[in-house]
Amino acid sequence: MPQYPQFTPHNCSWTAIFEMVKQPCFLWACWHPGNLGEYRSIKQLWATWHEGTIIDSVGQMPPLLLVEQEWGGTRNPSTRKGCRQTWRPHNDTNVRRQWSQFMFFVTQVNSMMGAGNHASEAVRILDEQRGSMTVPQFHSKLQPKKTRMGHTTAEGSLPSNSASPT
Question: Which of 5, 98, 116, 134 sits 20 to 30 Å CA-CA off 92?
């Protein structure tokens, strides 16, 4: 009869699991964020970043925040040189677009937290602003509009009062 490993907090943490990963370049296929259309709310998107996506009847993926901290690109502040991230495929336009759109909302929440809001309050404000729009529609609305010269306008940014509690 096979011996099953004894699971403990030491060998079942994300840190312990990450230590066993030898080729992070294959993680995107398993742990990538969904397309914006797969999220019903900013709250659901934020949970993917901060808590990890629940997989019904299976378990939970790691929070993408931890994955990005472990294998995301880093920059040395003094030299301004960085090392390339290792978990997202390189030179893939679709991956770059998907990650960028996902991180757009993470950045919005982090910005609102920097202005003094708790994460749950920032997410609530964004979901209220989203109203009946889908997450992709809300993303399009918030994106700065490009002009012919390649410059952006402030048209698509959040209203200035959005970072304060209502």
Answer: 134
Q: How far is CA 26 from CA 42, 43, 110, in A?
A: 27, 27, 28
Closest to 47 (Cα-Cα) out of 34, 30, 28, 29: 34
Amino acid at 107: T
* Res. 165 pLDDT band, cuts 50 70 90: very low
Tens of pLDDT along 123-160? Answer: 999 999 999 999 999 999 998 777 766 666 555 555 55
Q: What is the DSSP letter of 146?
A: B
52: left (phi over 0), alpha (psi -120 to 50) or beta: left
> Which letter, b or e, does each residue of 25-51 get, where b requires 16 or more Cβ atoms within 10 Å of its Cβ?
eebbeebbbeebeebebbebbbbbbee
